[in-house]
Structure formats: structure tokens, C-alpha cells
User: Fold GDP-mannose pyrophosphatase from Bryocella elongata.
Amino acid sequence: MHDESRKPIRTISSREIYRNKWSRWREDIIERANGQRGIYGVLDKDPACIVIPIEHAADGDYVWLVHQYRYTVGASFYELPQGGWEDANVDIEEMARGELREETGLTAELMQPITKLWIAYGAMNQIHHVFLAEGLTQGETDRDDEEDDMTVHRVRVEEFEAMLLDGRVMDNCTAAAWGVYLVWKRGR
Assistant:
């Protein structure tokens, strides 16, 4: 564990440079322990969640994925259901259940928190809560306007793992959540 009282970087000043309903950008003037000053750009976002919906069927295990276009990289990919509600004080499990239902139409009998991870913490301040969803029931989706191109896919676990390696899944949060899930599952 690290000693928080001995931070190697001190904030001299901070100013917000942009804000929208999803995020806040700030620019900080910092000073390193050696006295050298610099600038740090930080993207602040409210907590988010990522859900691993697993279905245990007679013919094997399946994971539910969404497929959508990601404007920032100009391509469409598969990923685990995930998102946030732009509220710093949100009930995390309620948000996880809500994101799962909104994006996939699924409700879960069991919503098990596994861990939490920072998303791209070299430039972003956002925590991602990882949940396992089991005991799934299909219903209707309720997507945001930004998700109108999203499709839902039930994929065998073996196929999903192949997708992580062949470029159909390139979302680091999906890959990290799956890796943490496998470690968590092995320890149970």
C-alpha cells in the first residue's frame, strides 16, 4: 500500500476547461517532488458499472454482449453492457441493474459485485464497478438516444474468449472485467 501523505505530485492550481452532462475536463498545474512543474489534463466522470451477464444453459455457458458504433475510434465492436448515470451519488447496484436492462432488456435474479477498477487512470478519473449477473430473464430494452444502433448478442463463452483475441472485442474494460471475473471465479 502507498502512503497518501507523501504524494509525489502536488496540485498548485486547477481550472475547469470544459463541461457537458457526461464529463468535466480540467487542467491542473502540478509540482513534482523534485520541484519541476508541469500540466496535467484530467477527465472527471461519475462512477460507472460494467456487467457480466452469464447464462448457464444445458449446452454450456453463454455471455450476453452488446454491439455498437464507437464514434471516438470510428468503428463498431462487441462489449459487455456498461455505462453510468451521470450522478456521483448513485446506488451502484441499482445502476448496474438499470444499465443491464436498458441495453439488453435483461433482468438478473443475482447481481454480484466483484470488484471496482479505474478506467484509464493515466488521464481519467472514473471508477468502474464490475458486476456478475446471473438468473437472467429477457425483457424489453430502454436505450438512450446515443445507443440507437446497439444490438444484443448471446454468445458462447468460448466464442466470446476468441472474440477477445481476434479484434471483435477491443474494449479494455470488457477485457479487464472478464479477466477479473475469471480470477474471482477460480477463487470461489
About this structure: Helices lie at 92-104, 157-166, 172-186.
